[in-house]
Design goal:
binds phosphoenolpyruvate, four-stranded antiparallel sheet, 338 residues, alpha/beta, Alpha-Beta Plaits, binds manganese (II) ion, 18% strand, TIM Barrel
Length: 338
């Protein structure tokens, strides 16, 4: 349920309503828009429907949300959300680029990658220290050592750090280093992990699950937000289909759909979305044209030597080229590459 307050409702009237709800054990979330406040109520719908909320001063109406997620929906918040990651804004006019290697392999490889992506204009360095690999025999990541290297790269370049957290146990250590927590595809429905990152104050990049519907994905975002962390950015990274030429099928219609039904920012990862480096630039351009707020791109100083995802990683030259190409498309979409 959401309760829409009148534009002229006072702070006291909002508090009266929220007090009434919390007193009976319901959870409330406030969305303070430019013109009015909207109160999202979480709890038994039948129970809320019986409360005489609409009779209270300052209340315009009570609406039953038509989708099973609430805080994520445009019904709850009309304005686009802008997520601030330590001074870098994701959403709104900014087109953010997160780039770097699939995995942190060594300090040398990471610092080189950081320089490359920084010089080409990225704002975030990506790199996995904990790698959820399909095979248990594949490189699993440098773990905390890798996080230390990411922090050193941030120190040297000023880039923000986004890196994956793969389980509940490592949330505190990843939080100690990262500016933004990445929840990978394989963990999109790890509800315990979603609830745990929802209790932190770190912005979260939530990748779409390998075979997740848009509804399941938005519900995963709802898990994080319902714990109080509203700083969620979605990432379309392709879904499993019958097509085998590409690693995944990049679902750009999801970008347009999410923009309609949610206020959250959304970025596109054409690297995992295609699995082929030669398709990354075209799909990056298409992602921005579809309305994405940014990109996540795998870049490696020497893709042929990469310990993971070399086939989909851009060379420094191709990444630079991509960064030049997206400026004009971003411009047409009313965005700027900061
Ligand atoms: C990654 O970004 O390194 C990654 C593992 O991506 P995904 O979770 O989308 O497969
Ligand atoms: Mn990868």
């Amino acid at each position: 349920m959401i309760i829409v307050m009148k534009p002229e409702a006072t702070q006291e009237q909002v508090t009266m309503v929220t007090n009434k709800l919390t007193k009976v054990g319901l959870k409330v979330h406030l969305s303070e828009g430019a013109s009015r406040t909207i109160i999202g109520v979480i709890g038994d719908k039948r129970f809320i429907a019986q409360m005489p909320i609409e009779a209270m001063d300052g209340v315009e109406k009570m609406v039953s949300v038509t989708v099973d997620y609430k805080l994520v929906s445009r019904e709850f918040k009309r304005e686009d959300t802008i997520v601030d990651v330590d001074g870098i804004q994701i959403g709104g006019k900014n087109l953010v680029v997160m780039a770097g290697p699939c995995a942190v392999e060594s300090l040398e490889q990471l610092l080189l990658s950081a320089d490359i992506v920084k010089n080409a204009g990225a704002q975030f360095l990506r790199g996995g220290a904990y790698k959820p690999r399909t095979s248990p025999y594949a490189f699993q990541g440098l773990e905390e050592k890798g996080l230390e290297m990411m922090a050193e790269a941030r120190e040297k370049t000023g880039l923000k750090i986004v890196t994956e957290v793969v389980d509940v146990e490592s949330v505190p250590v990843v939080c100690a280093y990262a500016d933004m927590l990445q929840i990978g595809s394989r963990n999109m429905q790890n509800f315990q992990l979603l609830k745990t990152v929802g209790k932190t104050n770190k912005p979260v990049l939530l990748k779409r699950g390998l075979s997740a519907t848009i509804n399941e994905w938005l519900n995963a975002a709802e898990y994080i937000m319902s714990e109080g962390n509203y700083n969620v950015v979605l990432c379309e990274r392709g879904i499993r289909t019958y097509e085998e030429y590409t690693r995944n099928t990049l679902d750009l219609s999801a970008v347009a759909a999410v923009k309609n039904i949610s206020h959250l920012p959304i970025i596109v990862d054409p690297s995992h979305g295609t699995g082929r480096w030669e398709l990354v630039r075209p799909m990056a351009r298409a992602g921005i044209a579809a309305g994405a707020d940014g990109l996540m791109i795998e870049v490696h100083p020497n893709p042929a030597e990469a310990l993971s995802d070399g086939k989909q990683s851009l060379t420094p030259e191709n990444f630079e080229l991509m960064m030049k190409e997206i400026v004009s498309i971003a411009h047409v979409m009313g965005k700027i590459v900061p």
